Amino acid sequence: MVGPDKRQLYPNTNINTVCYISNLPKKPNVEIGEYTYYSDNKKSPERFYDNIEHHYEFLGDKLIIGKFCAIAEGVRFIMNGANHRMDGITSYPFNIFGGGWEKVTPKIEQLPFKGDTLIGNDVWIGQNVTIMPGIKIGDGAIIAANSTVVKNVEPYTIYGGNPAKYIKSRFSDEKIEFLLKLQWWNWDEEKIFNNLEKLVSEYGLDQLMIEYI
């Protein structure tokens, strides 16, 4: 085997605050790619699912996270179950309190539904970020700490703030197009190992473009 064991929850036994969350027990409507980790110094990273809020199986929305993502502590995924009906005078959810108020329980189609939440590959999500329902974050994106993401994030861009806004692109359009075609995260373990220096180097992208173009 080359590299850490992707099948282990804690691949580095010396670090018990970082785990590969694809190895947690499976949860309905949650898909997590290999090597994606969650880091939490305040509580066990095994409690990652606690950060997926208002996620009700009957609604059918999914949280899909790609490979090689880095997710910091305090990141919250708000799912569609948090939404209230908004086409009436009030958005107050009378029905959940009983006492006869359940007569106005909305049908699923009457509730706002933003679809699945999709996090690409090689995405870095900083500490205490909140991601709202139905958001799509592209491959290679970076979300600054304490941001609230309310709109889609393009690949290889940096977003930050509340609400999160575009800060800058990480690379030129030409290089981003190349990386999206390269999809290094789908390489086998040996190929990744043999290209580690290029993947982390300031000039590695230029070298890979020379090799592959």
From TrEMBL:
<keyword id="KW-0808">Transferase</keyword>
<dbReference type="InterPro" id="IPR001451">
    <property type="entry name" value="Hexapep"/>
</dbReference>
<comment type="similarity">
    <text>Belongs to the transferase hexapeptide repeat family.</text>
</comment>
<dbReference type="GO" id="GO:0046677">
    <property type="term" value="P:response to antibiotic"/>
</dbReference>
<dbReference type="InterPro" id="IPR011004">
    <property type="entry name" value="Trimer_LpxA-like_sf"/>
</dbReference>
<keyword id="KW-0677">Repeat</keyword>
<keyword id="KW-0046">Antibiotic resistance</keyword>
<dbReference type="Pfam" id="PF00132">
    <property type="entry name" value="Hexapep"/>
</dbReference>
<protein>
    <submittedName>
        <fullName>Vat family streptogramin A O-acetyltransferase</fullName>
    </submittedName>
</protein>
<keyword id="KW-0012">Acyltransferase</keyword>
<dbReference type="InterPro" id="IPR050179">
    <property type="entry name" value="Trans_hexapeptide_repeat"/>
</dbReference>
<dbReference type="InterPro" id="IPR018357">
    <property type="entry name" value="Hexapep_transf_CS"/>
</dbReference>
<dbReference type="GO" id="GO:0016746">
    <property type="term" value="F:acyltransferase activity"/>
</dbReference>
